Amino acid sequence: MATLQIVDFNMKKTIITIAFFACALLVKSQVQFITQGKVEYEKKINQHKPFEDEADNIWNAERMKVIPKFVSDLYELKFNTTKSVYKLAKENPTNRYMMWGGKPSETDISVTDFLSSNFSSQKDIFENTYLVKDSIRHLEWKISEEIREIAGFECRKAVTKICDSVYVVAFYTDQIPVNAGPESFNGLPGLILGLAIPRLYTTWFATKLELTNPTPLEMNPKQKGKIVTRTQLITELEKGVKDWGKDGVRRIWNASL
């Protein structure tokens, strides 16, 4: 009798184990990965921060009294399995800018082609329009265990550097297995929904996702400008801002995004 009870117990244990793994496989099979759509990001800049250590500059001190500390605008990233297109979606009409050149450009647009590994970005800088054409930038990311929720998605933290010393913090979700993000940032196992560059006092965070199917026209926008590589653009800008001090350096960093 005892032997039968042991056999019966083992059978029940086996059945429960099988049922558990069957449920796990069912849940896994029901997980849907998003491969196309549109993400809206809020780009936010702390305008006062670069000038807070210039207490003796009366002009800047007076401007900080009347110009908002933060400005924010909405950007959009349309994506599918082959491309992503990033551009300004809506400028905040109430923005007032501390720095000349801080106003976003409606014609700036970046296209990342995953199939050809090419990147192109139209940029209005000073009085010139450039078309940066280069390969997709390779970034060495360090992925951490930190998790945060952004726009309803669980995102993991990763860190990299640009311009040798400028740290970039990103949060990506593997629920959207698309190698893209704001500006030219990419190279993670999922779409970047959050981005922060402390030395530029700037953040990008997704506010919503629309499950749309971008049209071929939307994914192949017209671009124009003086064609340059990333290196050629930075070299040209360095000549123009060499006497601008910290402001010139920040403009180089911004052009490198």
Task: Provide structural commentary.
This protein is an alpha+beta fold and 257 residues long. The chain has two domains: 1-31; 37-255, outer membrane lipoprotein receptor (LolB), chain A. Helix content is 25%, strand content 37%. Strands 7-8-9-10-11-1-2-3-4-5-6-12 form a twelve-stranded mixed beta sheet. A hairpin with a 2-residue loop joins strand 7 and strand 8 (153-162). Helix 4 (230-240) runs antiparallel to helix 5. It starts with a helix and ends with a helix. Mean pLDDT is 87; it is low at 1-7 and 9-30.
Quick gist of this model?
By secondary structure, the chain is α+β, with helices and mostly antiparallel strands. It has helices spanning 2-30, 58-66, 216-219, 230-240, 245-255; strands at residues 37-46, 70-79, 83-90, 109-113, 118-125, 128-135, 142-150, 153-162, 166-173, 191-197, 202-210, 226-228. Strand 8 (153-162) and strand 9 form a beta hairpin.
